[in-house]
Amino acid sequence: MAIIGNLIKGAIDLKGVLSSETNHIEEQKKVLEGLLKKALDTHFGKKYNFNSVLEAEDIQNAYANNIPYFDYHQLHEKWWSRVINGEKNVTWPETPDYFALSSGTTGKKSKRIPVTNEMIEAIRKAGIKQVEALSNFDLPAEFFEKEIMMLGSSTNLREKDGHLEGEISGISASNIPFWFEGYYKPGKEISEIEDWDKRVQRIAEKAKEWDIGALSGIPSWIELMLQKVIEHHNLNNIHDIWPNLQVYTSGGVAFAPYEKSFNSLLDHPITVIDTYLASEGFIAYQERPETDAMKLITDNGIYFEFVPFKPEYINQDGSLQQDAPSITLAEVEVGQDYVLLISTVSGTWRYIIGDTIEFTDIERAEIRITGRTKFFLNVVGSQLSVQKMNTALREIEAKFNIKVPEFTLSAVQINEEFYHHWYLGTETDITNEELAKALDEILKEANKNYRVARSKALKGVKVTKVPIDLFSEWSGTQKKKGGQVKMERVMSEEKFSEWKTFVSKLILK
User: Fold this and answer.
1) What percentage of residues in the chain have a pLDDT greater than 90?
2) Residues 482, 439 share a domain
3) Hey, which end of the chain has fewer CB within 10 Å, N or C?
4) Whether the predicted model's global pTM rises above the 0.70 cut
């Protein structure tokens, strides 16, 4: 009998019963007021006169009117470079103990994002909220006695100039509470291994010693880890070695592209729960099984704003036009894509996180990630978002009974005419020409702007099939494997040229 599991499950269920509904709009007002008061005497707070913002009748409106939008490069150039150099009270009181290294998608130069103790605590609280939400998923008591495989970046943080640096998953894992250490796998020793391939090899070697009930990590890297364990032990599927695996907590990217390939590694379906943990904070988590949408965490150190995702508001590099209108949580609409802005307890202010989202339920503050501001293909008016690309590829999977978990594309010129050139990670005998024709027809039927573009400047679609593992190898050449690294879906002309050269070299080997 799962005595400990019953106790944990009972405590979680009781917490769920006792918890009251959050008034998300009011909580957001409180969060903004708290952030402004805390940072009142910082250099940033004085520059943008937080004192007068706090005295305004409508603080949210005054805040939006007084502080410009910042992407990472703008905030780094004007403010965070001073924080990195050790200056105190720049955008947040004192100096942070951590910096999260992130390039978002693959990129050789890491960003350094401040992570304060307040943010570590906010992430911890968000994690507890997510655990409490498990009471909604009807999991058996035995599940709460199983171990959790958290596959993130290395927890071997680097010390530099009086602070520690690493990816946010490594920072979070290095700050797990002592009572959780017995459940956490692969454990401290393996998690500190820097080289991703070596770390996964050690996981495969130790896999038989663990009773894994849940997985957590970015889908592409989780899949590669599971494949390695299956291969190492010559298994039919991962349930042969971890029979009690029941839950997978995805994060940071849409799970739908990976669903078919992920399920092929299992003996039976498991519960998939989406979360939204970025380098800048823990933003949202899936609270209930009736939907794959995630609930914004509105009462925990992050203030959200939203800019309608329209081409005229977006610069070529994915940043925002300063005159683009922003709205609050009280003004959002269902079904509209928004550029997400955050202000946080780590000293980010009206920060363009780079993701686009849509609301599925305003009262519950539930959202889905729809793409990236940089991954928006509109060179000849096609207005293709990542969500539209993903939806089209799910139809391709169904039509041809294939798996396409990875892809990238770019607008290219051939004989002075524009084409969309897709690289699809798939193993199939279907020809490139058949895939291109089907993809083109699906996009024309589903997307008016694309259909208009195809009748004018967009000449056609090219498809090149490549082995799926080329995408992880590319990530390795650009930055490193594992952790928070995500594949860029839309590439610039220059990056696409590098990608094509990389692919050609590997395929010719």
Assistant:
1) 45
2) yes
3) C
4) yes
